[in-house]
Amino acid sequence: MSIYALNKRANFDYQITDIYEAGLVLSGQEVKSIKTGHINLNNAFVTLKSGVRSELCLINCHIPLYKYAGNVAEYDPTKARNLLLKKSEIKRLIGKIKEQGLTLVPIKVYNKGGLIKLEFGVGKGKSKIDKRETIKKRETERKLRRIKQQY
């Protein structure tokens, strides 16, 4: 399993409770671009597209045009990409989003059995105070590790 992209800000900005795995609907040149390591999850988010069928979409994920893709007219690198999930999982996520006011945050994009998968989490945004506590815990852990290494 190779990781193509990682959203480092996800665990810092959100308190993630549940993690889900979904497939991505991509074109051929997008797959090649991702496999060469050209994908960016910064400022990306997962949203619910309601209509006849409820769908989840990945918004603002930047996948640039593949270097060797011939004539691709009007390619949008930040277009909405649908996620492949079961109906039961989508219904469960809709309930969590609407009732509890939680958000869906993309965490990483990776390869699993030749397929490109997206791992996203259900989380609640952290306040400034929570972020400060996270930084403080991280600093104390670093100091303890340094002290242990000396002795």
TrEMBL record:
Compartment(s) where it occurs, according to its Swiss-Prot or TrEMBL record: Cytoplasm
Top-level taxon: Bacteria
Keywords: Cytoplasm, RNA-binding
GO MF term set: RNA binding
InterPro entries: SmpB, SsrA-bd_prot, SsrA-bd_prot_CS
GO cellular component: cytosol
Keyword Cytoplasm in record: yes
GO biological process: trans-translation; trans-translation-dependent protein tagging
CDD domains from the UniProt entry: SmpB
Keyword Cytoplasm applies: yes
Protein name: SsrA-binding protein
Organism: Candidatus Falkowbacteria bacterium CG10_big_fil_rev_8_21_14_0_10_43_11
